[in-house]
Amino acid sequence: MSAVDLQGGAGPGGRVLAIVTQPLVVATLLIVGLLVLGEAISPGFASAQQILRLLIVAALLGIVAAGQNLVILGGREGIDLSVGGVVSLSAIVAGNLMNGQDGGIVPAILACLATGAFFGLLNGIGVTLLRIPPLVMTLGMLGVLQGLLVVIRQGIPSGLAAPALSEFVTRPFLFGLPGIIWLWVAIGLVMAFMLKRTVFGHRIYAIGANEQAAYMAGVPVRRMRIALFMLSGAFASVAGICLLGYSGSSFANVGEQYMLPSIIAVVFGGTPLSGGKGGYTGTMAGAILLVILQSILTTVNIDESGRQIVFGMTLLVLLLFYGRGRAMRA
Amino acid sequence: MAKLELRGVGKAYGATVALRQGDLEIEAGEVHALIGANGSGKSTLCKIVAGSVRPDRGEVLIDGRAVTVRGPEATGALGIGIFYQELSLARHRTVAENISLPRLPRKGGIFVDRAAMAAIADRHIALFAGVAGAGFGADVPVERLRPDQAQLVEIMKTLASEAAILIFDEPTSALDRAQAERFFEILRERKRAGVGIIFISHRMDEIFAIADRVTVIRDGETVGTARIEDTDPTAVINLMVGRHEAASADAPPDTGGEDGRASQSAAQAVLAVRGFSGPGFRDIGFAVAPGEILGFGGLHGQGQSAVLRAIFGALPGASGEIRLNGDALQPTGPRATIARGCAYISGDRSRDGVIHERPILENVTPIHFLRNRLGLAHPARLRDKAAPALEALKTKFAGFGHPVSSLSGGNQQKVVIARWLIDRPAVILLDDPTKGIDLSAKADLFALIRDLADEGIGIVLYSSEDAELLANADRILVFNGGRVTRVLSGAERTRHNLYRAAYEAA
């Protein structure tokens, strides 16, 4: 939906081409293609049960990518490399607060959201007030979080997911889909509404497209940027809680696997790293695509290091593709 | 035979002609002043001599021999030394190193000869002994120097080139009187030694103090050269003004009302500014009456832009009293001033105005959001608000959803201006708003501005195009060296008076 507007102005002849080359359409076609490929390699890959499992994993990634998406949209080299650390920390905090009891869920959610938003606040302050480049600031924050995790794990146990949380993530809830899928759909709707229909959303695009012009038009640029990093931290902490529900208990650096894929999902979805355009719908498709790709790689027995190489290459190829498109338009 | 001669030199950038017909002749042992209004082509002429711009046609001759100047390195080899207005100093290096930077004395081919470098530095620093001020020395890093001291280093660096032709592009802008006088003494010495000097300045008094001849450039053409003893400042300004003055149709007919409006007390003024000082301007005071278009004129960069940005809150470090419709205004930032009804339109729309690649609608609405403290963006309602604002400027666009980048420059600027019109502002600050837009867009813009003024909105218009200012402003404050040196109203608003005030010593 967001991608359609960006292509306005194309003639009727160019419109077909424009639709076909839209990131969202490309991603959907690739998703179908990869499912067919997976089925061919390993019969049963595209079974309903299997697809559901992939969607749950994609939802976890997609929730992290929602925050990443906002930070990247805000421009000025916006990126959040600390999301993985926040996911891990939240999983541990949540596991210890609920410790297998349903009654601990609400305090755990509140504590995790506060934790995520707090580290996002620190990132935002570093980037705006101290003028540290986001790449450096959030990488430093990731280091801090990793150190913190080591310290925490020496003192306290890993903690256990509350039964209701595990059920929410893994058991069918409505129309055969678990709660986390519905949560993801809800996040998608809220993100689309926010970006298209709220002043806050319009301002995100404005600071991403031309920060100076936004400032001259009265947009509170610093506050906006701090808010984006806080949202990124909050989304990562939600993903951390859900991840705890998915795996039952937390373990060290469980969130580490989210940093690179969350960026790839955003770029795949049509939001350039320079910000100012794009949206979350494409990012959701990007997250699904990545999870399927990961699953296929696992199916053909490519180990973790091999998958990392493929992911890194994917990001670089994507940047080459989109980067070139931007340069030609400028 | 002339030391340096330019014959019929011309340069065009696409359809824009920067220099039509540049003729200039510098004798050995003379100081030759070059003068011309904003955009007349004198800086292009200098760049051609300096080798940073290649002329499309014409010849450059040194000692009667046609030469092609290829870049700064070649300039040095040809015996041309240039002082750049925007200083070209290595900030972290010392005064001595900067003086010798273009031609570092070497030992054994690769090592810097520090003794020779110190000798060169001492010789040139001695030239300004007694006037350079405290904290100036060969071993001081340039970043620790005051602006006037940094300018002295640039002068020393130019002198150290020992070139037979020296070009100084506004070398005295930051210097105090004693420093400038010492500099002129040094120029006279060099002149006696046979050096040909091109001296560019906007100060008529300096030109008449130091130059032997003066050449006037107007609209990209050399229009005359005179010996200084055969001319006077009025004659020079008349040459700069040229046919425009004869036509004299620049100024609108005097309605007689402006002076009355202008003298209204500050309490009735839409915008009243008193004792306003900040980076690049000092002690500015003026009042804009309802229905009045107040013009800011003068040479480029004399503080006009800075004043407008400071009132809008986009330039920190200003102090003084600002009253908007009688109430004090604290320019703490654009957010605060916009909420109070200030509008600021920048001529640099690509930097300050256009939200690139975003839809036209999103480019028109940000001020409306802020003024009405909106939280939700309702596209249909916003389109209804935006349409009349765009219509008022006769903006041509195909659809609200199309990216702003798909429009022409003039229409992009109209979109940026339209964002200020949905909710009527109290005052509109126009900072050279027509830069780079086409004639019909300019006409649409000025027609609208007059209508807005008639509605009672206070308008301040800075324009680098004198004709625009003379045609549209009811009163013109002439800026010179960061201060208002003259106010032109009624029949005084002529190109001649404008130039005269702009080129007088501040």
UniProtKB/TrEMBL annotation, chain A:
Its main location: membrane. Keywords: Cell membrane, Membrane, Transmembrane, Transmembrane helix. One of its GO terms (cellular component) is plasma membrane. It is found in: Cell membrane. Signal peptide: none annotated. The chain crosses the membrane at residues 16-38, 50-72, 104-122, 134-153, 173-195, 226-246, 258-275, 282-302, 308-325. One of its GO terms (molecular function) is transmembrane transporter activity. This is Inner membrane ABC transporter permease protein YjfF. It is a multi-pass membrane protein. InterPro entries: ABC_transp_permease.
From TrEMBL, chain B:
SMART domains: AAA. It comes from the Bacteria. Pfam families: ABC_tran (PF00005). GO terms for molecular function: ATP binding; ATP hydrolysis activity. Gene3D superfamilies: P-loop containing nucleotide triphosphate hydrolases. InterPro entries: AAA+_ATPase, ABC_carbohydrate_import_ATPase, ABC_transporter-like_ATP-bd, ABC_transporter-like_CS, P-loop_NTPase. Residues 4-244, 265-506 form the ABC transporter domain. CDD domains: ABC_Carb_Monos_I, ABC_Carb_Monos_II. The keyword Transcription regulation does not apply. Its EC number is 3.6.3.17. Keywords: ATP-binding, Hydrolase, Nucleotide-binding, Repeat, Sugar transport, Transport. This is Ribose import ATP-binding protein RbsA. It comes from Oceanibacterium hippocampi.
